[in-house]
Amino acid sequence: MGGRRKDGAYALVPDEAELVDAWFRLGFGAQHAHAVRPAPAAPLPNRSGLTIRRAERGDVPVLAELELALPQHQGLAPVFSAGEMPTLEEALADWEESIDDRDYATFVAERNEKVIGLSIGCSIEKSSAHSGLAQPDNAGFLAYAAVFPEARGLGAGRALGEAVLNWAAEAGYTSVVTDWRVTNLLSSRAWPRLGFGQTFHRLHRLIGH
């Protein structure tokens, strides 16, 4: 059984471990996952049939659109994470300024010469969410990945993740960290399949009922 209060929702779950775990992972306790895996010892091959390449300045308009794709997805069920989202104009301005920043490695996936997704790699030290025990030494960071809804299921997400893993190994990092909202089922399935093992839970509680 479940219910709603003015500032959230609750679930009344029988004391059965599998049911409790399922609801816990649906956001009634667990909110975010942190995970790590070793950098690949040898380059991971691209088996998707898609073209994976470094982003260029001419990609800025589509990169701005892809920056909105992830928050738009996470605003839907079952994630319900409707955080503040930039406008397309703000995303364009940000990419115009940052596309040449060498601290970030941006990759795009193309199908029929059309960009359908992107991923971004950087040093873990660029992430404020990964600090203290959650910040391994000499680690790269899979900071962002998004694929347009109509192009999902083609293997672009996996290929873009592998591009960041290969970049991290070439840059000399010994491991790679990422994180995801646990109710984002696409991420919760894709990143463990790419070898990421969960290290930390971010637990969430609404206070002030």
List keywords for this structure.
5 helices; single chain; 9 strands; 209 residues; 7-stranded mixed sheet; alpha+beta
Q: Can you describe what's shown?
A:
With 209 residues, this protein is of the alpha+beta class. It contains 5 helices and 9 strands; from the N terminus they run ββαββααβββαβαβ. It has a 7-stranded mixed β-sheet. It has a two-stranded antiparallel sheet with strand order 1-2. The two termini are 19 Å apart.
Spans of at least 5 consecutive residues with low confidence = none
> Average pLDDT across residues?
93
Assembly state of the chains shown? single chain
Shape, per Cα inertia axes = globular
Largest beta sheet: strand ordering: 4-5-6-7-8-3-9
Using DSSP, what is the number of strands? 9
Q: Helix proportion of residues, in percent?
A: 25-40%
Instruction: Outline the biggest β-sheet.
Output: 7 strands, mixed
User: Which sequence of SSEs, written as H and E, runs from N to C?
Assistant: EEHEEHHEEEHEHE
Radius of gyration: 18 Å
Q: What is the secondary structure topology, with strand pairs?
A:
Elements: E1 2-5, E2 8-11, H1 17-25, E3 30-38, E4 51-54, H2 60-74, H3 88-98, E5 105-111, E6 114-123, E7 139-147, H4 156-170, E8 175-181, H5 185-193, E9 197-203
Parallel strand pairs: 7-8
Antiparallel strand pairs: 1-2, 3-8, 3-9, 4-5, 5-6, 6-7
Brief rundown of the structure:
The chain is built from five helices and nine strands; from the N terminus they run E-E-H-E-E-H-H-E-E-E-H-E-H-E.
